Amino acid sequence: MAMTPMIPPPNAAAGNPNFEGAPIPTAPTPPGTDMTGICFRDQLWLNTYPLDRNLVFDYFALSPFYDWTCNNEQLRLQSIHPLDISQLAKMTGTEYMLNEVMEPNLFVIRKQKRDGPEKVTPMLTYYILDGSIYQAPQLSNVFAARIGRALYHISKAFTTAASKLEKIGYVAADAESEEPALEPKAEKETIDLKEVKRVDHILVSLQRKLQPAPPPPPFPEGYTLPATAEGDKDPEGQQATEPAAPPLDPIIDQGPSKRTKF
């Protein structure tokens, strides 16, 4: 089984610490828990070695996502394949497992904590897509991002709807403010001529259907209408101030009967 030459951990100091004045090697810095904003790709390595299930872990070890304190690194130092599950099951601590493989395009690597041969706790997930290494976001972050995006669009929709309703409210308020100014104009409007003509037509038709009134009976000979003093003085003023009294019936209103005395 071909393996690429092991690369010393980063931040490893050169020189022999046993000699005086030589720098003391420091422990490599573990990768962060949230590195979803970066991507790693080594085109030189991809041009030199094939990317398959046997060499994919060596390629992953070159990335900043790799934890040099994991159990897989201890197996590499012992010249054992770092993904040997029979050896990893005997150890406890942080390790990497090849979860899914779709050669040569997709490889999914899971970081987990092993507390026993059958007890592991998933921590993070990484995937290699066409030679580029990414950290998969956590499910809670995916839900938070999508919910935040949905709330943004909902808030934007409500803002747009509120702006439209405000314009409608302004138009309605303007119409209500104009209504009192139009009311006095409505009081000064003239009567509809069509309605007047219709009423006149009805009255004329009724007048034609009714029979004419009979003429009044004739006055007796020598009878004259009584005239008041005011009527003699100013008959025109009387007609202007009050309507004329109806004529008296000469047959009915003739005064008391005259009897002869014996």
Automatic annotation (TrEMBL):
<protein>
    <submittedName>
        <fullName>Mediator complex, subunit Med6</fullName>
    </submittedName>
</protein>
<keyword id="KW-0805">Transcription regulation</keyword>
<dbReference type="InterPro" id="IPR038566">
    <property type="entry name" value="Mediator_Med6_sf"/>
</dbReference>
<feature type="compositionally biased region" description="Low complexity">
    <location>
        <begin position="12"/>
        <end position="24"/>
    </location>
</feature>
<dbReference type="GO" id="GO:0016592">
    <property type="term" value="C:mediator complex"/>
</dbReference>
<dbReference type="Pfam" id="PF04934">
    <property type="entry name" value="Med6"/>
</dbReference>
<dbReference type="InterPro" id="IPR007018">
    <property type="entry name" value="Mediator_Med6"/>
</dbReference>
<keyword id="KW-0010">Activator</keyword>
<feature type="region of interest" description="Disordered">
    <location>
        <begin position="207"/>
        <end position="262"/>
    </location>
</feature>
<dbReference type="InterPro" id="IPR016820">
    <property type="entry name" value="Mediator_Med6_met/pln"/>
</dbReference>
<dbReference type="GO" id="GO:0006357">
    <property type="term" value="P:regulation of transcription by RNA polymerase II"/>
</dbReference>
<dbReference type="GO" id="GO:0003712">
    <property type="term" value="F:transcription coregulator activity"/>
</dbReference>
<keyword id="KW-0539">Nucleus</keyword>
<keyword id="KW-0804">Transcription</keyword>
<comment type="similarity">
    <text>Belongs to the Mediator complex subunit 6 family.</text>
</comment>
<feature type="region of interest" description="Disordered">
    <location>
        <begin position="1"/>
        <end position="28"/>
    </location>
</feature>
<feature type="compositionally biased region" description="Pro residues">
    <location>
        <begin position="1"/>
        <end position="11"/>
    </location>
</feature>
